[in-house]
Amino acid sequence: MATNSGTHSVPLKDRVAIVTGSSRGIGRDIAIHLAQLGAKLVINYTSNSSQADLVAAEINSSASPDSPPRAIVVKADVSDPAQVKSLFDSAEKAFDSPVHVLVNSAGVLDPKLPTIANTCLEEFDRIFSVNARGAFLCCKEAANRLKTGGGGRIILLSSSLVGALKPGYGAYTASKAAVETMVKILAKELKGTRITANCVAPGPIATELFFAGKTEEIIKKVIDESPLCRLGETKDVAPVVGFLATDAGEWVNGQVIRVNGGYV
User: Of the four listed, 22, 98, 225, 251, which is most buried by Cβ atoms within 10 Å?
Assistant: First the structure.
């Protein structure tokens, strides 16, 4: 039986996606993967404009020279409601379309990995401001702004640490547990809109965020704990997010999907 291969190869054709924290790491690969599925991308960053520009340039390089850009770069701090609103405004203005997909990948971690007893209040507040408050603000804006009636997707990045409960990650893990709880409630509150809301919770992934502050011994121990005997890579996570963003992922809703090779 003949199939329309063109439709299957670009399941997100011309849908607009915002990926926060997409100048590097997991967010970067998610943005590039969504672009390969046909989406138009908003590359978001807070501090490193040059890396964000490189991601947008990579996406735009595949478009024909006379066509409008398929990726734009927008600076925004997800913990600031005005900047989150501006992020959505920029997307709608640039692509003359409502946003279809929000992927919130922006996140911070204290590389010193202090115990709860030794976590300073300022660091706790910083982690919750970006990870929990940021996710809340992005969810709030998306719930009010995403295209309804089909294809609306909210995908938040959590962490498999919520299952592993490792010492040294108290504030970080608590902030991600808040995100997971929020997304399950949000999915129910979006009843009737056909917007889905899910979390993707990676295990240890070989990114700058993971390597920061870790010795070779600690890294080896993490690898030894994995049934697949390796660290995850960003390319292990991006396709899962991509699936959730497409029409094929509609029946997955209000879920936390741990992408960790069996680590937890």
Answer: 22
